[in-house]
Structures are given as structure tokens and as C-alpha cells.
Amino acid sequence: MTDDTRWLSTEESAAWVRLVALAELLPGALDAQLLRDAQITHFEYAALMALAAAPDRTMRMTALAARTNATLPRLSHVARRLEERGLIRRFPCPEDRRATNATITEAGMRLIDEAAPGHVDTVRRNVLDVLTPEQLHQLYDIAGAVLTRLDPDERLTATACQFSEGPAIARAG
Amino acid sequence: MTDDTRWLSTEESAAWVRLVALAELLPGALDAQLLRDAQITHFEYAALMALAAAPDRTMRMTALAARTNATLPRLSHVARRLEERGLIRRFPCPEDRRATNATITEAGMRLIDEAAPGHVDTVRRNVLDVLTPEQLHQLYDIAGAVLTRLDPDERLTATACQFSEGPAIARAG
DNA sequence: CGCGATTACTTGTTCCGACAACCAATACGA
DNA sequence: TCGTATTGGTTGTCGGAACAAGTAATCGCG
């Protein structure tokens, strides 16, 4: 049993440690701000944003699950809670009686409109504003390369206008 | 109530979407491989690696919690499970009778030695090998800049030799 | 038709993490 | 030296997510 593993060089190890730390800390930072200011998780925020940007503000549960990297059971529970809070509405899909459609309500649109400024501010302070324009482009390429592996069919990034935050969403209303 | 929010430009939005997708998918990919091949989570792997790289393979619970971005209660539960599996051992700290030390056992060392090749392979296939050497350095700088905000006192990246994987750890024995 | 396979969700169970309450030991002030 | 505050960890409880099983509707092929 020979060991043909290609171990990490110093540079590789250093970059990897930082990337792991980033992936570890970023979700918590996003959740903390949104929970504090809008009583929703970042996952729920992303789901609401996806619905807000969809045609008729409506998506199939399956499509929404793919977009948010959720399992269908997980999305089902989250959708039930969001529906209880009046932020989304669910109804049977006319074309396919097996399917369920989810629509963001006016209250849901108001919530993300109110939450967007604080969220964008968090994104700016923690990420975007500490990078140079050149680094921003490098990040785009680097993350794109990695996502080729982690998300080959671009489920999470097929964004239409997913993150044209705030005003664009308001226009979508 | 004027809206002075600086919304995201097209470039900013695109890069941000990709970064969020990356942070969303990476932890799951790491967990999946390690759970499948070594029956441990990536968090547990990181904790064991930290212990393996520490002097005397031993750390205070508080220090280990800081290093792994865990709350003390969370680490306490994880440590109990690892101890039940014989991968670590806990004992009172001699210098401070309030404190508890955790040490990785021989069985724990064996487990991370066996898990390291598969883990490194996953890291290579999903991340390192899809980047150019130049991009690797850019990633180092970009993540470093963001971590200045998310982890100002470098708790997660004060790595001594945290990720000199495999052989280096074997030497630490 | 009609029966098996597939797709779309929901529900139930189990495990894990966060928060809070708690216990133990030290530090410090009166 | 006594009492209080602080630090270090563990335990209990609750909510959330994954996995698996169950239901319902459509598809596909004979």
C-alpha cells in the first residue's frame, strides 16, 4: 500500500486554511445580522429573494430547493414556517397536480425590502469593501472555477437577477 | 427616511453570488467525504488536527473551541462523542484546576492519518487543482482581506502547522 | 388500458447545535 | 477571611436539518 498522495505545499496549505476559515465564518455572520434585524435566516432570505425574482413571484418547490441547495424535506419545513408567518403562500400547481407552487406575498416582499439595506451593508463591510476592483474580478474567476466542481450545473448561481438587491426587487413587485 | 444604501454593481453582485454559493456548498462537500470515508465530520477532523499539531498533542477546551470556531457547549458535546469513540482523552489541567485538557489518542492519530489522503484528494479535486498558481496566491490575499473582518484576531488561521497534512502529522507523533 | 417506475411532497424519527442554567474553582475587594 | 464577581466546563432543553418512509399523481411501455 504505497502512499501516492500529493500533499499540500506551503502555499496551498496557507490558502486552503484561509478558504476554510472563510467558509466557516461567513454563514454565521450573514445569519447573525439577518436574524437580529429581520428575524429570518440567510437561507430564508435567499429563498424569498429567489421567489421575488421569479416570474409571477412563483416557483415549484423542487425548483426552489435546487436553487437554495436544500433537500425537499428541509424546504418543506422552512416553507411551512414562512407560510405561517404570512411571508409566502403555497398552492397546488395547475399543470401538474403532484406539484406545489410557492409564491412570495406582499408581506414577504416588504420584509425583504426592509431587510435588504442592512444585508447589503453587512456584505459590503465584511467582504466587498475590503477588496480592490481587481480582487473582486479575481474572486469572481476563482469562485467560478471551484463552482465548476461543486455546482456543475449552476443551480445556485443561475441567478437571472437574484441579487440585484433592493430596488430591482422593488421593481419586480 | 432616505435610502442611502449603496446597492451592488453588476460585478459586485456576480462575485458575491458565487462566493455565497461556494460558502454554501464547500462545507457539505467536505463533510460528505469525511463522513463516508472516516465517519467523522469536517469539524471533528479539524479539531483532531488541531490537537495533533499542538504541543504534547494537548489543548485546553477553551483554546480548542476558539481554534475551531465552536461554542464551549458545542465543543463539550463533540468532545464527549470523540472520547466515547476513543479518539481523544480528557483530564483536569494541573496548572488550573478549573480547566480541562483534551489530548488526541493513538487511535485518533491513526484515524486522521488514514483519513488525510482522501481528504487531501477531495480538497485538490474540488479546489486547489482547478486554480492556477497565480489564482492560489490571489485567493490567499482575498481570503486574508475578508478574514481581517470576520476573524480579526486570527483564531481560525493561527495555524502553526495545522494543515501540513499527513506526513507532518505523522512526524508530530 | 393497466401495471411498474418515476416524480413531487409531506410526515416521522433521529441526531446535532445553540442557548441558558448550573456547578466548580479562582481572583479580588472589604 | 468572607463574600462576590469572573472564568472554565458540563448538562438540559429546544429548534432545526438529514434521512427514510409514506402518499399521490404522472409517465412509459406492453
Name its key features.
homodimer, 173 residues, mainly alpha, 62% helix, globular, disordered C terminus, DNA-binding
What's the short story on this structure?
Chain A is built from seven helices and three strands; from the N terminus they run ααβααββααα. Chain A has helices spanning 10-38, 42-53, 61-68, 72-84, 106-126, 133-150, 167-172; strands at 58-60, 88-92, 100-104. The longest helix of chain A has 29 residues, at 10-38.
Structure description:
The structure is a homodimer of 173-residue chains. Chain A has 173 residues and is mainly alpha-helical. Chain A contains 7 helices and 3 strands; from the N terminus they run H-H-E-H-H-E-E-H-H-H. A 3-stranded antiparallel beta sheet of chain A has the order 1-3-2. Chain A is globular, with a radius of gyration of 19 Å. Chains A and B meet through helix 1, helix 5 and helix 6 of A and helix 1, helix 5 and helix 6 of B. The structure holds a DNA duplex (30 and 30 nucleotides).
Proportion of residues in β-strands of chain A: 5-15%
**Can you count the beta strands of chain A?**
3
State the strand order across the main sheet of chain A: 1-3-2
Shape of chain A: globular
Quick one: which chains have the greatest interface? A-B, 66 and 66 residues
**Uncertain runs of chain A with pLDDT below 50, 5 residues or more?**
161-173
Can you count the helices of chain A?
7
Oligomer: homodimer
Span of the ends, CA to CA of chain A:
62 Å
Task: Work out the helicity level of chain A.
Answer: 55-70%
Largest sheet of chain A: 3 strands, antiparallel
| Class from helix and strand fractions of chain A | mainly alpha
Average pLDDT reading of chain A = 88
Order of helices and strands of chain A: HHEHHEEHHH
Computed over alpha carbons, the radius of gyration of chain A is 19 Å
